[in-house]
Structure formats: C-alpha cells, structure tokens
Amino acid sequence: xxxxxxxxxxxxxxxxxxxxxxxxxxxxxxxxxxxxxxxxxxxxxxxxxxxxxxxxxxxxxxxxxxxxxxxxxxxxxxxxxxxxxxxxxxxxxxxxxxxxxxxxxxxxxxxxxxxxxxxxxxxxxxxxxxxxxxx
Amino acid sequence: xxxxxxxxxxxxxxxxxxxxxxxxxxxxxxxxxxxxxxxxxxxxxxxxxxxxxxxxxxxxxxxxxxxxxxxxxxxxxxxxxxxxxxxxxxxxxxxxxxxxxxxxxxxxxxxxxxxxxxxxxxxxxxxxxxxxxxxxxxxxxxxxxxxxxxxxxxxxxxxxxxxxxxxxxxxxxxxxxxxxxxxxxxxxxxxxxxxxxxxxxxxxxxxxxxxxxxxxxxxxxxxxxxxxxxxxxxxxxxxxxxxxxxxxxxxxxxxxxxxxxxxxxxxxxxxxxxxxxxxxxxxxxxxxxxxxxxxxxxxxxxxxxxxxxxxxxxxxxxxxxxxxxxxxxxxxxxxxxxxxxxxxxxxxxxxxxxxxxxxxxxxxxxxxxxxxxxxxxxxxxxxxxxxxxxxxxxxxxxxxxxxxxxxxxxxxxxxxxxxxxxxxxxxxxxxxxxxxxxxxxxxxxxxxxxxxxxxxxxxxxxxxxxxxxxxxxxxxxxxxxxxxxxxxxxxxxxxxxxxxxxxxxxxxxxxxxxxxxxxxxxxxxxxxxxxxxxxxxxxxxxxxxxxxxxxxxxxxxxxxxxxxxxxxxxxxxxxxxxxxxxxxxxxxxxxxxxxxxxxxxxxxx
Lengths: 135, 605
Description:
Chain A is of the alpha/beta class.
C-alpha cells in the first residue's frame, strides 16, 4: 500500500501543486485546510507522515503539534514543516524537537522529495499515477 | 541705569509731619529734579496710585498706617504691588527690625530723621537698579523653570545618598507620583554617569514603563549630586515590536505565493504534467530563475532588517582569512575566465587567523568580488589581497573598471543606493549587497570603505580585527547584553564541551565533535550566536531565555549528545554549563570571568 501523507495547509493552490507532485511519485495524499480539519483527518487516516504549514488560520502550530502528539493515531508520525518564516524565527515555542524536517518556502522540489523519502521511504514502482508516473 | 525721565517715587505715609520731612529731604538733593513724588496715606490708596500713569518706580513705605500696622505692612505692600522695589522708612532705628525687613524683600531700611537727601537719593537709585536686575534674574529663572516643567522627560537631582532634591513635572508623570512624594523617597533607579541605562520601572499603579536613564555629575547647592534624565521608551518599544513583526510578516506573506509560483513553473517545466517543448522549457526556466532571484531579494531584505535590529545570528569559529580569500577566488575563477577578466591574489607569508563568522565574511568577499567582476571590462583584472595592518587584517578587492565618482562613494554603502546606475546592461543586484556587507563587517567590529579615482578602477577595503576566542566572545556577549537590556529581557550563555565526553580523543572524538556541531547548529538555530572554540567546545547565546529555559536547553543538549555518542544521559550530564543574564552577570567582563572560572574547574565539580 502506498504511504499516506496528510497535508495540512490553508492555501488551496499550494495544496493542488503538492498533491500533484506527491501523487505522481506514488504517495497517497489527503489535505486539510485548517488545524481542526487536520486533527480529524489524522485520527481517521493514521498517516505515515504529516506535511504541515506552520501558519494556519485557526490554530497555533504549537497547539496543533501538541494535539497531534496527544492522539494515538499520530503520536509518533514524523512531521515535516513548510515555513515561509525565517530560520531565525523557527524553534520558537519548542517546535523544533517535534519537527523532523523544516522545508523553507520557496523550496526545491527535489529537496522536499528527498526529505520525505528519507523519513517514510519511496512508494514501490508502478504505484504512481499522473502524466509522468509511468515514465 | 536711571532713565532720563527721572524716578517716580510713591511715598506711603499717613503722618503729615513725616511726609513733610520726606519732601524736604528730596528738596535737599542736589539734582532733586530727577525725582517725582506722589503721596498716599493708606496701603489701599497706594494700590490705586500704583495703577496711575506714569507708574511708580519705587515705594517709600512707613510701617504704621491706618490700614496696616507693624512689620507685616511690608508683606502686605509687596503682595499688593508685586515687582515694585520697596524702601522701608521708620521714625526710629530698631536694630532687630532692619535685617528682618531685608530678608523679607525690602531693598533698604532707612530712618527718617537720620539721613540726608543725598543718601536717600543713592539708596533709591541703587534700589531701583537692584530690583531691575532681580526682575531679570527672576525672569530668566522662570524661563528655565518653564522649560524644565514643560519637558516630557523626567529631570531629577539626587544626592549621593539617594535623597532626591529636585524633580520636574516630567518625573511626576513618569513615576505617577506627586513631586512631594518623590522628594520624600530615595531615588529608586540605577543611574550611571558612565553610560546610558535602560530599565523597567514598576509604578505603584502596576504599570510597567520602559525607561532610558542617563546621569551626569553636578553640584547642587554646593553638594556633589547626580542630575538624572529619564525618558519614557514606550514609543520606541512599539516601533521595535512592529519592526520585529514586520520581519515575520514579510517572510511568510511574500514567500508563500513565491513558493506557489516556483512550484507551478517547476511542475510544468520538468514534464510532470505533460510533454514540454525545449522552447517552452527555456521560457519556464526564466520564470523559475526570477522566482529564485525574488527570493534572494527577500533574504537580503530580511538580512538588512536583522542587522539593523541587532538580531543577526552569528556563527563564530577560528577562520583562516587567506584561505577564505583563496576559496572565494576559486569560486569565481570560471565566471572571470568567461568574462576574460584575470583574477589575482596577494597573500601574506604567514596565515592570518581570527575568530569570526566565516560564512558572513565570505558573503562580504563574494559581494565585493562579484561587484568587481560586474564592472570590470574584458581584459581587465580583479585583485584580492590580504595584509596585516596595525594589528588588524586588511582585505582589499581592487578592479580595473570605470571607477566610482568621488561624490558617490559615501552613498555606496546605503540601502538601495543608485550608485550603480552606470552599470553594464544585464547586471542586476538587490541594491542591498554593500549595505549588508557593511552591516556584517561592523558586527565584527571592523570597517569597510571604498577608494576610487574616476576612470582608475575601484578599491574596496575591509579592515577586520584579529580576535582571539575570548575577545570574540566578549564582543558577542556585549551585543547580547545591549540587545537584551534594551528590551528588558534575559538571555543565557550555554557552554558545551562535547569532546570531554569522549574518552581518549583521536578520530572517534573528532567525529563526535563534528556530529555534535551539526546537532547544535540544526537544533539550536534560534541562538543569538554560536561560537566554536579551538578545543572543540561551543558557547551558545540563547536570546529571551530565562534560567528555567536555559536549564531545559542544557538538558536537551545533553540528551542529544548522549544519543549521538550512544551513551546514557548520565555520561553527558556534566558537559554543559549555564550562565544567565541578568542573574549571573550584568556586564561582559563578569560573564567572561565566570566562564573562565568554570573552565578551570575539574569536571563534575
């Protein structure tokens, strides 16, 4: 079964692009646009990885991460954080220890894919869909 | 001086006999025509007469009148006719009375039967003149007092023992207390004539006020005292806060859409969503490159903002400056040969080391070298040199380009300076490179400047101090103290000695050291500064951290080091040391002394 990734990000256009990119690679991606929806999805989906935008409209990222860690479904799920914030701003509020990798925006796609692969591995060949999936 | 018009004298005397004596005295005066007399027999009538034209210049006052009797008459008269000089005249001389009257403001005390007309004339003239001078002095004093009172800043004078001798209205507003209360209590703030302090005042009403406290030594009534100036920093703080918020806002709000632009272009360009022709790919590549360029400009803007706010993090280690120049030259060798420009290097015989932020100094060199290449025409030459200069390191990047207008040189290092208007077509920069370079060099306690003759190429100089570890540490601690005390915040200095945990040393210890460095740099990214000493130990400055947070950071580091070395946390337990500002030290000397004491103590002590 393809590794499942939960993307919590409020910007629908960015969701669309990340989904296309990861689904081509063969990952299964579900997106949530708010922290609350993200927590629901995490409980339901038991994702292998959470991709998280650190600035969300409804929830402080620290609270969101604490809540994720409080649920059995996502107690140990690795988290990769997208951030438009400066590296200098990161690690505030003790976020650092729970976040496996930071991906500063704008990012190199190859870097994002490498970080994901390092944490949860790459899907088996043939699982990919989309235009270039079979190339 | 007495005016030509003469002196108008108002005589207040109820006894006609005495009034006659006085009139005759004036008649005796040799130049008696200089005085014009008016008489009143009560204080009340004197008040009316004083309002007549021309107004009197002086009052001759008898103390015993129908509507006032005795020495109190003087007080009543001066209240009734303020600013008018008064000479008291009585019939008999009374020793104890004279001095008392002068103290209470009389210009003179005369006995009617005992003086001559001339003496009276002198007394009147001197009194009028004295009163004029007094009025002027009073006016001047009032003006100064008015300035002091209307000043929004607090001004106080305190004796060495803390007793407050003076407080203005600004001080009342700042403390939220009446002047009388301020004068009753000892001066409550730290003040230092050597330097400006920033302090937080906790007012009785619970409000906290950030204050700037400046002090100068002064003499007050013959006693050595301190004149203290207090400024409410609330508006300054608000500005600082909005600047800090601006940094975060600009990062997120600009980078998120930029990220979408870049990823959209990449997705199409790399063929992920359908086949692309070579020509289409080329066009998409231009879009992608400009997204990257825009991101570089955001980085530069953030860097300059951080430099100006004094929060640019520093990563300091021992650096071979000559090697840094060589590396920079190597990085540009290709670009130079493409442009047919030759690169030359001039290094001193013995290497020059200093403790600095290597990557930031590299950024300065990169800025200077890439600028030089941009402006140097084909067959030109760019020379990098390093030499000792009065105990410091002088780096020079010299080109054979068109040079810089002398009047443009002072503007070169400003943000977005338009000096490069004559740059060759296609040469683009952020307009911030030299401003950032100046910020970086100044953060290191150095200096950067340019020299050029029109048409004779340009020379950019960087003078960096050659610092041993302790001096570099002292400088960053001083910067952190300035920054934290300005915001009334705490910070922690954490020393980590990872090598001490590995028994023996050798390659295993070296490898551990490198891994520890990676661990610290990726996990303690919010450090204000991180310094690596030659023996492999690290000193971290954690901003906004109180002792509790400092302890947490220490145990986090110890746990991380234990994981790295495959040991239990007990084995790495003694590897970190913690000092907190302002609890453990208030100045950089104390901090360094305590750090040195810690170092000389055996482990586990």
